[in-house]
Amino acid sequence: MPSPFSTKGCDANGRWSRPPDGFSYLWPAQNAYQFVPVGQSRALSLKTDHRPWTLTAVDLTMSGGIDVRLNARKTVIGPFQTYVLEPGMKYPLDLTGNAEAALALVMSTPGEADKPLLYAHAGGTLTVHYAVNVILRDCSQTLEQYSRSELLTLLREVETSYAQANIRLVRVGPIHLLELKTMSLGPQIITDSRHGDLIRDHITASGRGHLKNLVYGWDFESEPKPPNAANLSSGLTEFGGNVCFIDWGNRSMVTAHELGHALRLIDRPRGDITIMQPQRSSAPFIPFDYAQIEVLRMVAKQVA
Ligand SMILES: [Zn+2]
């Protein structure tokens, strides 16, 4: 059965038609997840089939941190709020985050084994700091000029995608324009350890510690080349590392992906709809799913 829960911007396959807000379907499809930033609300809806259903909200953290607004008859038995839902109806469902909390919303109808579930998690703002470096040229080559306004637009998109997990990306310092004069790197700036270290040495002292460093350049490649190098040359970040290399020519979704690796997310297989699927073609919006949101928040708490 399809999930009775939905959010305006997301279809049953988790595809977005508006900026993502932390809603995703879990597997199996009747389970759904919604992240709610503290101080904000998320509007969802709920659809019943030809049968009468009940919806029970269980406050898992017993904190009262998530308010449920649903226009239906409600009974309260201990920690359970149960709503009576009529057959063949669509109900708007609003969730408001007041404090860190977890809530399970479970649907049931007599004689049906499936109990569609929406898991909601409310969390406060977490801050991740990052710095930006652009390699303009080395001593032998003059490389393509970058556009500051394009870069700022891109960074705003990345910041929006992380906002769905209530992670605030804050840029530290100005955009550092790097000219590598000590050695010719040729037209291909290679991110092996020697050349990678040379670039790392150019990152300012403020770039150490937990700060995530985005390094934009032209023709980044890793060496030795992995077998499917053509698909991998657009970005490179060591798992959990703090330096993300992003090729200027392929940067639209790569920055959010590489930053994901810096925050300990791993690649997803082909067919996955999230930003961590490396071959994913560009899309207007970049979703994370429930597991990624939970990992991002755990890691961001450590680096904040
Ligand atoms: Zn990757």
Task: Provide an overview of this structure.
This protein is α/β, with parallel strands linked by helices. The protein has 2 domains: 119 residues, Sandwich (Immunoglobulin-like); 178 residues, 3-Layer(aba) Sandwich (Collagenase (Catalytic Domain)), CATH 3.40.390.10. Helix content is 18%, strand content 34%. The chain is built from 5 helices and 17 strands. The protein has a 7-stranded mixed beta sheet, with no helix packed on it. Strands 12, 13, 14, 15, 16 and 17 form a 6-stranded mixed beta sheet that branches. Strand 7 and strand 8 form a beta hairpin. It is elongated. The protein starts with a strand and ends with a helix. The model has no long low-confidence stretch (mean pLDDT 83). Bound molecules: zinc ion (ZN). The site of zinc ion has 4 residues, from helix 4.
Features:
alpha/beta; Immunoglobulin-like; Collagenase (Catalytic Domain); 2 domains; 6-stranded mixed beta sheet; 5 helices; 18% helix; binds zinc ion
